[in-house]
Specification:
Elements lengths: L1 H26 L1 E7 L8 E7 L3 E8 L5 E6 L2 H14 L7 E2 L9 E8 L2 E8 L8 H13 L2 H4 L26
Parallel strand pairs: 5-7
Antiparallel strand pairs: 1-2, 1-6, 2-3, 3-4, 6-7
């Protein structure tokens, strides 16, 4: 009779262990980047960076490689990236910058987890009210994970604007002797 009870409860223990493993697997996500559709040929993909340095890419459309791909970066690099997001003020920024002054641009969704706290931001590319550092951080994720090898699209920061005609960066060279 005890064996019958034990075998009867075994599936519940196995299901419980599976859900614990699934929970642990999702708890170690450090950074995500998702690029969404537009009314053109904007690349649609997601990159997930885990604390252990695992990089998971899922290409959907308008990319050279569709489907899942994985690679690795150093876990120390991941920790430095998360710290850089925190130092930039990411965790204090709004959850959405989604004013659509132009109707055919994509959105970029990022999330960063530090010390068990996750902050997620959706930025519509046409919304100029987002902190100027956010588009740079989004592009930095692409650079650090080398998404170019799968997307075929070189990250571009030329369209980053603070919503004014004032230059963000000016480079001036003096006379050289």
């Amino acid at each position: 009779m005890n064996k019958l009870i034990l075998f009867g409860l075994l599936p519940f223990f196995l299901l419980g262990a599976a859900s614990i493993q699934a929970q642990e697997a999702t708890d170690n996500v450090a950074i995500t980047l998702e690029r969404t559709a537009c009314r053109g040929v904007c690349p649609i993909y997601t990159v997930t960076i885990l604390e252990d340095g695992t990089v998971k890419y899922v290409g959907e459309n308008f990319v050279e490689t569709t489907g899942e791909q994985t690679t690795e970066i150093e876990p120390e690099t991941v920790a430095l990236m998360v710290d850089a997001f925190e130092n930039a003020g990411y965790f204090d920024w709004d959850e959405a910058y989604d004013t659509q002054t132009v109707s055919d641009l994509p959105s970029i969704i990022t999330s960063v987890t530090k010390d068990g706290e996750t902050h997620r931001i959706t930025r519509y590319v046409g919304d100029t009210t987002a902190p100027i550092a956010l588009p740079f951080l989004e592009t930095w994720i692409d650079e650090m994970t080398h998404t170019l090898i799968w997307t075929g699209v070189q990250p571009d920061i030329s369209g980053i604007s603070n919503g004014t005609d004032t230059p963000i960066i000016t480079l001036q060279r003096g006379v050289c002797f």
